Amino acid sequence: MRKLLIIDDERAICSSLGFALGKDYAVSTAVNLLEVNHHIENDFFDLILLDLKFGEVSGIDLLEQIGSRAPESIVVMMTAHGTIQTSIEAMKKGAYDYIMKPLEISQLRALLGKALEYKLLKEKIDYLQNEVQRRYSIGGIIGNSKKMRDVFELIQKVKDVDVNIILQGPSGTGKELVAKAIHYEGNRSLARFEAVNCGAIPENLMESELFGYEKGAFTSAGSKKKGKFELAHKGTIFLDEITELALPLQVKLLRAIQQREITPLGSEEVRAVDVRIIAATNKDLKKEVEKGHFREDLYFRLNVISIELPGLEQRKEDIPLLTRHFIDKCNKRIGKSIKGITREALLALEAYDYPGNVRELENILERAAALTDHSFIELDDLPGDISRLVPGKNLLETHNIIPVKLGHSLDDITRLVILKTLEAMEGNRRKTAEVLGISERNLRYKLKEYGEC
Fold first, then answer.
1. pLDDT by residue (tens digit) across 181-196?
2. What's the total number of domains in the chain?
3. What is the 3-state secondary structure (H, E, C) of 214-283?
4. Within this chain, do residues 431 and 286 fall inside the same structural domain, yes or no?
5. Interval 270-284: pLDDT, tens
6. d(CA 423, CA 399)
7. Which is higher by pLDDT, 133 or 343?
8. Domain boundary among 288, 310, 332
9. Which of these, 37, 33, 47, lies nearest to 97 by C-alpha position?
């Protein structure tokens, strides 16, 4: 049950309101400042019903104190006739609404109901904002390697700085995730993040995508539409695959950056825009400039700060962390209860080169999680070109661990190692000798000694 605090210096009013509203709320009352302080310090209230005239104390002053000490509470003011202007002032100070005395209980119930709906909506918005922070914050980017810690440090340094940024790195390294982290961690997080894939939109549509258009600007323009720049006003626009942008559009993008304004197609109206641009590419942007594929002046406008994202082969120490993260993600997505991955399978993942980087690792684990019948992802659950990469695979197979107990003599241990290795090599004495690092002659002598010849 939601909690309601009634603050009125007349005890009879507190009692009657408590009786009338007790079925809908868990009601507490306060008739003096001592009781108000006690309740505010020791409890949490969804709604507060506050009398504008609270003895010798101004309800406005008390409202301000409640706002600073219990900002999560929604306050409704009660006021007598002739004090409407003061009630309006109270709303400016943070009160949700006011109600006139003498109180009509049905009207009061309706007002408190609306105030509670507002409270629930505010809680939902706060939750969604926190969820956005959780999903796209630096904590949402997995990695503990030196290269990734360097990336995290750069994100922290640039998140509140209004400069353009270029993210460079191979495909699948999480450039959009980093762009979102910069946006949602920074001071532009309450405005929009708009992403544009410059390589996925035809050249003849890109200008309208970026800058918008007016009704009738072209044949199919049945109504006006805002472009990404206008939608991202006060926020961030992410231009992925920026090198795929055609040269004529590079000129218009440069002008938008320099002038901080855009003109929608079919309009003569210039509109000011305040956006931070984060561009991304998997190509060497300097070489694209040298080849004449990318404008040098645009390059310098965008490349104020550059962040290099490492490929997965450069940070393989992050694979165990990423694997755990993706298994948990797959469990939630497909409704499985996979506990983890076997050591042998993890060794195979660490031996692979990942041309598709982190995105490829996620796809591999999603496939394995979907197909496995075990509680742990095993070596056989991985694609063949990866499962073959286990160190010692096709040499020792499942015999790569030999149990040795305390108290065994060195002769017993030597015998056990030689015979198990010979078994793993399917009786091939040459391979067995190579693995053990001894001559075939020495191996024959040992086998004769063990009665295995």
1. 999 989 999 899 999 9
2. 4
3. CCCCCCCCCCCEECHHHHCCCCEEEEECHHHCCHHHHHHHHHHHHHCEECCECCCCCEECCCEEEEEECC
4. no
5. 999 999 999 999 999
6. 8
7. 343
8. 310
9. 47
